[in-house]
Specification:
By secondary structure, the chain is an alpha/beta fold. It folds into three domains: about 1-40 and about 60-80 and about 215-295, FAD/NAD(P)-binding domain; about 85-205, no CATH class; about 300-405. The chain has helices spanning about 15-25, 65-75, 100-110, 110-125, 135-140, 145-150, 150-160, 170-175, 180-190, 215-230, 275-280, 290-295, 335-340, 365-375; strands spanning about 1-10, 30-35, 45-50, 50-55, 80-85, 85-90, 95, 205-210, 230-235, 240-245, 250-255, 260-270, 285, 300-310, 320-325, 330-335, 350-360, 390-405. The strands form four sheets. It has a seven-stranded mixed beta sheet with strand order 9-2-1-12-11-10-13. It has a seven-stranded mixed beta sheet with strand order 7-6-15-16-17-14-18. Strands 3-4 form a two-stranded antiparallel ribbon. Helix 1 runs parallel beside helix 10. The protein is globular. The two termini are about 45 Å apart. Residues about 370-380 and about 385-395 have low confidence and may be disordered.
Length: about 400
């Protein structure tokens, strides 16, 4: 049994930031991370034969100056300023995102464009009262027609449920300040930097910072700083229970190491950045039956990345593409070389990340991709014109309990 002032469960961005700031303040910290190899959680960078993969795609941009300053402090000489470029793939056509209204309407055609304009006008004149769902909120801001074309399919892929079931609160936070009117102003009027950083609409920013070797570089540096200041970051350490010892005024946190051996660390304080449901079920003394039921009812969405390495043809310069095609399971395609050239070791190649969203226990249907791997053919929806060099299904890039679900 060991002792520490504070135990932090999880070495993702939240857990490591807490540990880093506590160590700076002189508080001994022990961080328990279940992953046996990587820190950073979904913001880790996975490596394979010199290629690096950003598990999820992470722009480094914050409205809070304090957060930006913290990133600079941790990684002062390795942050790149990158142009933002993303598109939507819908009905065999590419649309800029954020939407460029003139381009979008011209590609949709006269009839569909007229329907979208009419639908938006109707939404402004007769909005859905008291919007409760994601569908209500977005339909009010863009019109029902544009909602169905550019928001519905992708959102339901990500969350695995109807947009009617997702809370409007999540929509308001996730795409705060974004509406068709703000998109039009951004596209047609000269761009002005808001005086107050809090007024920036994150979806519309056209540049962002990015560590030159992926987001994991930030959190590996942060873990290194924690260790330099006397803290511990234990990998392959899965927290299994958390007991409060009232007589001693301490917590006993049990964890299992990679070899299956159980250990205990005592601390005055515990900070958990792991799944809330798992933490509540492991608390001692146990919480109430009602709290246990609520914890068991919490749902999470999991995440799998499939990496493809192909010959470079210069036909895909976006950072990422949203796939709004209900006929394929892939939700988003990342272009790692566009995030940072150092993510790809050989300029003759490009590397893409195909992102799939699932629930724990879902069948991972990669048979089609494996067939492409055997036959050395490209999946049709990539449309890069490149011959396939290699396909690798990275089970290490699967992320359990990645996103808590916001239900109405």
């Amino acid at each position: 049994m060991t002792k520490s002032k504070t135990v932090v469960i999880g070495a993702g961005p939240a857990g490591l930031t807490a540990a880093y700031l506590l160590c700076k303040a002189g508080w001994p910290v022990t961080v328990l991370e279940a992953d046996p190899q990587y820190v950073g959680g979904i913001s880790r960078t996975v490596a394979y034969k010199g290629f690096r993969f950003d598990i999820g795609g992470h722009r480094f941009f914050s409205k809070a100056k304090e957060v930006e300053d913290l990133w600079t402090e941790i990684l002062p000489a390795d942050m790149l300023e990158r142009p933002r470029s993303s598109r939507i793939f819908y009905n065999d056509k590419f649309y800029a995102y954020p939407l460029q209204p003139v381009q979008a309407l011209s590609q949709l055609g006269v009839v569909e464009s007229a329907r979208c304009v009419w639908s938006y006008g109707k939404a402004r004149l007769f909005p859905r009262p008291n919007p409760k769902s994601f569908e209500d909120w977005v339909s009010n801001e863009f019109g029902e027609r544009l909602f169905r074309i550019f928001f519905k399919t992708y959102t339901e892929k990500v969350w695995g449920m109807s947009c009617k079931e997702i809370s409007a609160d999540w929509a308001a936070q996730r795409i705060k300040g974004l509406s068709l009117s703000t998109v039009l102003r951004n596209a047609l009027l000269p761009k002005r930097q808001p005086k107050n950083r809090q007024d920036v609409i994150k979806t519309l920013v056209d540049t962002f910072r990015y560590p030159r070797k992926g987001p994991g570089m930030m959190w590996e540096a942060c873990a290194g700083r924690v260790r330099e200041m006397g803290g511990e970051v234990l990998l392959g350490a899965m927290a299994v229970d958390c007991s409060y010892l009232r007589a001693e005024g301490e917590w006993a946190v049990g964890y299992r190491s990679a070899d299956g051996v159980r250990h205990t660390v005592r601390a005055e304080h515990v900070i958990s950045s792991g799944p809330l449901g798992r933490l509540v079920q492991g608390l001692q003394p146990p919480v109430s039956a009602g709290a246990l039921r609520a914890a068991a009812a919490l749902k999470y969405r999991d995440f799998v990345t499939v990496a493809l390495i192909l010959k470079e043809r210069g036909q895909f310069s976006d950072n990422w593409i949203y796939v709004h095609d209900p006929n394929v399971k892939v939700g988003r395609i990342q272009n790692y070389k566009s995030w940072s050239p150092e993510m790809v070791p050989d300029p003759a190649y490009s590397c893409y990340g195909l992102e799939y969203f699932c629930f724990e226990g879902d069948g991972r249907e990669f048979d089609t991709l494996r067939a492409h791997q055997r036959k050395r053919r490209r999946p049709g929806y990539l449309r890069t014109g490149a011959s396939l060099h290699h396909i690798k299904v990275f089970e290490i890039a699967s992320v359990s309990k990645n996103n808590p679900i916001w239900r109405e």
